[in-house]
Amino acid sequence: FLAKGSANLDKLKDLCNEGKEHPSTLFQLYTQAVLDITYFEENQLVDEDFPEESSLQKLKELICVLSEPEDLVRECSIKEEPINILGAELLECLYWRKGALLYMYCHTAKERSEWLQENVATFKKCLNDGVHYLMKMLSFRCPLQLDEDVSLQDKDTARLLSEGIFTDTHLLAMMYSGEMCYWGLKHCGEGKQESLESIHPASNSDLGSSSQSISLDFQETGRNMLTKYVAVCEGPLKGHGWNTTTAKQMLRYFVESHN
């Protein structure tokens, strides 16, 4: 992945020197290099089991780097939205990687009971941002307008696409979102609409942009995500190896905690 990233950067440098290529090609090459190089670094963090003393800072740095391609498009005064320059797939990759990285970090951090007791606000911020990133990833191609004359054998596919599920990764993003909301409700309380800045003054600059500064309703968001996940796995994707046992257990917890 480092070699691929390096090759893309070399290619980008050559194209910039020539000055003939369309900006979207240059931005896409840069984005691909960012994805390759950060993937290597993310795997290192996972292999080391997110070291308690250093991983949070590394996490912030990686999320900052993964946000750069989109930020760069906006800063360059191109009168186009990032999706028109980078394309939906690359933007989905960037948001998936940010969300999945926070998911993996929180999966490890929630088992560190002493750390969790002292850092509930940080944990909540990580969950909140992670779910926001995954929900954003699921939104880029939605709502998809489907033709009314979709043939009968395509109904299952049409349902998947209308839910924003284009790949296995999209479905996994739903499950991850629901699971992170479950951790939030279990370890941080209800997590309704208060500003996270009031809990953690530096949170806004810690892990992402101001769009993540409003706290999610973990219960409602988690229930919605997991309900969709179960419906899809037991509907159009029934018999394709997707397990719903854990999702149903978490859904029961959401219902019980609401009551």
Radius of gyration: 20 Å
C-alpha termini separation: 48 Å
Overall average residue pLDDT? 84
Shape: globular
Biggest sheet architecture: none
Q: How many helical stretches?
A: 13
What is the number of beta strands?
0
Helicity level? over 70%
- Sequence stretches where pLDDT stays below 50 over 5 or more residues: 191-206
What is the string of SSEs from the N terminus onward? HHHHHHHHHHHHH
Q: What count of domains describes the coordinates?
A: 2
- Helix/strand class: mainly alpha
Question: How big a fraction of the residues is strand?
Answer: under 5%
List keywords for this structure.
259 residues; mainly alpha; 2 domains; 13 helices; 0% strand; globular; CE051 protein; RIMC1
Report on the structure:
- It is a single chain.
- The model is unreliable at 191-206 (pLDDT under 50).
- The chain is built from 13 helices and no strands.
- α9 (168-188) packs antiparallel against α12 and α9 runs parallel beside α13.
- Helices cover 71% and strands 0% of the residues.
- It is globular and about 65 Å long.
- The protein starts with a helix and ends with a helix.
- It is mainly α and 259 residues long.
- The protein folds into two domains: 1-86, no CATH class; 118-259, no CATH class.
